[in-house]
Amino acid sequence: SQTIHQWPATLVQPVGSPLSLECTVEGTSNPNLYWYRQAAGRGLQLLFYSVGIGQISSEVPQNLSASRPQDRQFILSSKKLLLSDSGFYLCAWSVGGNGGYTFGSGTRLTVV
Amino acid sequence: RKEVEQDPGPFNVPEGATVAFNCTYSNSASQSFFWYRQDCRKEPKLLMSVYSSGNEDGRFTAQLNRASQYISLLIRDSKLSDSATYLCVVMGQAGTALIFGKGTTLSVSS
To answer: Could you report the per-residue pLDDT of B53-65, keeping only the tens digit for each?
Structure first.
């Protein structure tokens, strides 16, 4: 069966520090991968999506970036965190274009 | 107009009640629709897809009205365990990613 892993579960980082969040998927090949962020009191915001290795589409201009070095690995990064980067970061995968997504358990990031 | 709009609630209902949530979406070309459930501080989980003919899964019934660009979720015989936030979800304009509403909060009390 397919599983998705995200880590860490929680993270507290100072302003200006770098960030790297990793997401891996098991049990499927060539998944579509997504990074969403849910800020306090707000809905899920799509940050990046990828339909294949090295293919990244950005939805919101910001100081975050994403990479997909392997088929089942999706990484979210920042060189310098801002206070506004705090939130609940969720990785998701899907196969095909019109199905629902399966989410990882998320990383709760607090920038202080 | 926001892409997906929901009444945030909260909806406070007693056990056994029937409750309905509504949602509107802006992209008339959208082809895929879903309801997700999100428990406090947890990831969203797919509750059910929404089909044009309407569909039912146990106590849950979803309806789609394409002409009005409106989606609904009906929960019958509410249980305490139904307390959560329910997210209305629509495939985005580019057809590449799902767009989530901000959610409707349901609290079921005994």
So the answer is: 889 999 999 999 9
